[in-house]
């Protein structure tokens, strides 16, 4: 299966098309409605699940153990956690302004979410589906990738045009490079 997001929702009961210039209050005032993620069977290329999530889903990630789908919702400032077995959202966690990239530890116990409207990475405890703290990485983190060993995060910083390497154990930036 593959998962894709859709925030250009049309038809009865759907609000105007979502966009990147939004806040939870501006989206509500505009009449925006929640968006959806589609699960597509790669053998048939047919949509076999439609999952409601927050406003303007930006990034999707499946845990390595295939238990959860995580969706960063740009305009509603939150993270949807979907149980893959049921196709239902089981948690909705507040993230702050403009959650974007997601990386998940190889053991599927921790997710790292880039909060682009800030200077932090938000940690999510996937054992109990709660927030697990945050740590500083630099201005406007956009995308985050974890190395296969789960030792380092690599984070792109939008405004300064840098990539930083973060030691996960210490939650400290150990090096940075201009892109």
Gist of the model:
The protein is mainly β and 179 residues long. The chain has one helix at 24-30; strands spanning 2-6, 36-41, 46-52, 57-62, 68-73, 78-83, 88-94, 99-104, 110-115, 120-125, 130-136, 141-146, 152-157, 162-167, 172-178. Strand 14 (162-167) and strand 15 form a beta hairpin.
Description:
The structure is a single chain. This protein is mainly beta and 179 residues long. It contains one helix and 15 strands. The strands form four sheets. The protein has a four-stranded antiparallel β-sheet with strand order 4-5-6-7, with no helix packed on it. A four-stranded antiparallel β-sheet has the order 8-9-10-11, with no helix packed on it. A four-stranded antiparallel β-sheet has the order 12-13-14-15, with no helix packed on it. Strand 2 and strand 3 form a beta hairpin. The model has no long low-confidence stretch (mean pLDDT 94).
